[in-house]
């Protein structure tokens, strides 16, 4: 859209753009936040037609074509694009969130990192055997890529990296339990890759519980099926719910509050308002719903940009959006991964190298690519994770 | 002390060891926290005689030789070493702390980083001319090395690094004001080096106010001498006050609450309790007070370790502690520094290289040395600071 004669205002409630696929590595003390985040206005600095504002949107006045900010300010628009994403959802149990944090933002990641490290610190000082075992039990809810990546990395952290650092506890006895309601982990992948990942996770020492949904989360632990698992730390990677964008417009939604957009990604009844990414639902993947992953959002973004640029030129016949799936990747610890590009399925070490290269490629800027590559090399060679920090306010929540 | 037959318990309220000389670089978004901090238990993992505990000390029962923890636990000791450091002091005006944060911990640094970046974000959206000017005015109180380093780096950040990123404000018009009560900045250095640093700071665009002490800090700004300066961000680098260690023991103190220790660094009346670092006062530098800097604390630490090791062997004649001053260094922006090693005084670029090498040398571990060196190289070459993150909870304090 850079060539179109338009002025663009980008509004975000955070000052940074986040590379979410690697967020679990910040949560497990492997990467620093600044290695996977970039200040938005800095990325866009050369595009003089783009103004970046740090602000929180409270609503939309579609009649007068104004975005309403939470401090009372307004921003007028001719075209509006909503890419407000999704947060975690707890299947109607919002009260579980206090006990089972999710991983969507850098704040989530830093918080989870502190909780993981703190669990070991508290266990080191705990004299009661049962309480100590609960502190050293980590439950992860949700067997998709995020849950699998968290479980594998926490298992490596506990069983390998922290082994020598404690005197009163043996971190190799930490239990990492991955709970999935469906019949297999990585349900979005081919069955044989799921089986491979399952075995790889078990080799890392992760205990996998299938076919039982979570019934309850509390400060004591998590209940699923007939089982009550005493665990001080529960991580939620199971359900998402779209942002409030649909509520701002009274738009039609699915059960996760995602806007059911038209074929050209506009909001029904508002031809000048578009919505993209995790906050929308559209069956544009050979009849199936487009997945809530970054490549889909990027393709939708480009499509909307082209549509708006055409309109400005007077061309009002936008083609429908079609999603092209490049592939799925998930990593299991630092030695193994599964990769699926249509017919091409890879597993093990070669998949892991491909996964690493792809993720480094999609980072922004040579500096971050170098920093992350060196960080991973260091973890691989030395076995040490470099960002094991607890910020003090986490110890007395 | 590794060869002595002793068991050592290290208690800290934080899980990481911090390289404080570079803390201002985290505060100015130049380095990530994990580049200057290391998990304590990881550093000590090979020393099986050392147990590390994350805990907060609430007091000392010197009669029964117990350390009292804030959760009710106790740790028994034969010898005790207190190295509890110092916090900021506001000359009797504790209420100023809310408006003028200091820089002693990683939490301080991340908080200040967010406040600095947020000031520019808010200014970008501010329509009132006076309020915008106040947002773009940064006051630093205290002309010692910390204040000088903060002032110089914020000036570079505003005038160079952020220049292209904003549309409604010109960051080159940000005012950075350094306020020092005494007659010159860097009072601990030779006069000609102070003059050089003063000129270098002014060339960076810092306004220096000498000879006037701060009278008041508020949400509007800072008052010093006859002047009222409207500044939304005030950074405090002016006074320190020792930890509560002296209060725990009822020990004799100076005006900054530092324990006046004996010549062998023991606490008067408690031959088995030693105190070192920023929390003590001792005239062991050719009759002058030992400065509150890391090299002094390290020398004191080694002296106490040797004393305890001797005692264990039955040798009860500890020599008095003598401080050896290696030198003073302070950097002004990314091109200049002043270095003083006794008779040897350096300034400018060569001093800056020496400063850089010394600080990299004193970091712990090759990984951090490489990471910091690469980060500095990147800043130097590209002009971009890589850790410009605001964590969301800072926007709505």
Structural write-up:
Two copies of one chain form a homodimer. With 397 residues, chain A is an alpha/beta fold. Chain A has a domain at 8-86 and 240-312: FAD/NAD(P)-binding domain, CATH 3.50.50. In chain A, 30% of the residues lie in helices and 24% in strands. Chain A contains ten helices and 24 strands. The first copy, chain A, has helices at residues 23-27, 40-43, 106-125, 129-135, 145-161, 191-203, 245-249, 294-312, 349-362, 366-382; strands spanning 8-12, 16-18, 37-39, 50-54, 57-61, 66-69, 74-76, 80-82, 86-88, 137-141, 175-180, 206-210, 214-217, 221-224, 227-230, 233-236, 240-242, 259-260, 266-267, 270-275, 280-281, 328-332, 336-341, 344-348. In chain A, the strands form nine sheets. The first copy, chain A, has a four-stranded parallel β-sheet with strand order 12-11-10-16. In chain A, strands 5-6-7 form a three-stranded antiparallel β-sheet. The longest helix of chain A is centred in the first third of the chain and has 20 residues, at 106-125. The N and C termini of chain A lie far apart (46 Å). The relative contact order of chain A is 0.15. At the A-B interface, strand 4, helix 3 and helix 10 of A face strand 4, helix 3 and helix 10 of B.
């Amino acid at each position: 859209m850079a060539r179109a004669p338009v002025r663009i205002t980008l509004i975000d409630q955070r000052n940074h753009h986040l590379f979410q696929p690697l967020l679990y590595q910040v949560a497990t003390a492997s990467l620093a936040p600044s290695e996977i985040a970039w200040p938005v206005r800095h990325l866009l600095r050369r595009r003089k037609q783009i103004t970046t504002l740090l602000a929180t949107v409270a609503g939309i006045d579609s009649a007068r074509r104004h975005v309403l900010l939470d401090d009372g300010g307004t921003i007028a628009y001719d075209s509006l694009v909503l890419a407000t994403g999704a947060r975690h959802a707890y299947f109607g149990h919002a009260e579980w969130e206090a006990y089972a944090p999710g991983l969507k933002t850098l704040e989530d990641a830093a918080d989870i990192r502190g909780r993981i490290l703190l669990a070991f610190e508290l266990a080191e000082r705990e004299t009661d055997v049962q309480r100590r075992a609960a502190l050293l039990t980590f439950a992860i809810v949700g067997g998709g890529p995020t849950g699998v990546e968290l479980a594998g990395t926490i298992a490596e952290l506990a069983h390998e990296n922290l082994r020598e650092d404690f005197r009163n506890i043996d971190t190799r006895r930490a239990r990492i339990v991955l709970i999935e309601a469906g019949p297999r982990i990585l349900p979005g992948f081919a069955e044989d890759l799921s089986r491979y990942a399952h075995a790889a996770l078990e080799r890392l020492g992760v205990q996998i519980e299938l076919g039982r949904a979570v019934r309850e989360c509390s400060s004591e632990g998590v209940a699923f099926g007939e089982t009550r698992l005493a665990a001080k730390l529960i991580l939620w990677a199971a359900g998402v719910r779209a942002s409030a964008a649909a509520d701002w417009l009274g738009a039609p939604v699915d059960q996760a509050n995602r806007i059911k957009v038209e074929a050209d990604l506009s909001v029904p009844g508002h031809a000048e308002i578009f919505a993209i990414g995790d906050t929308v639902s559209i069956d544009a993947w050979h009849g199936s719903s487009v997945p809530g992953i970054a490549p889909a959002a990027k393709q939708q973004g480009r499509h909307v940009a082209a549509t708006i640029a055409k309109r400005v030129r007077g061309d009002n016949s936008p083609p429908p959006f079609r999603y092209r799936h490049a592939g799925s990747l998930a990593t299991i610890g630092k030695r193994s991964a599964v990769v699926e590009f249509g017919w091409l399925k890879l597993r093990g070490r070669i998949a892991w190298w491909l996964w690493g290269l792809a993720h480094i490629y999609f980072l922004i800027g040579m500096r971050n690519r170098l920093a992350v590559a060196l960080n991973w090399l260091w973890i691989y060679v030395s076995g040490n994770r470099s960002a094991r920090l607890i910020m003090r306010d986490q110890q007395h929540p």
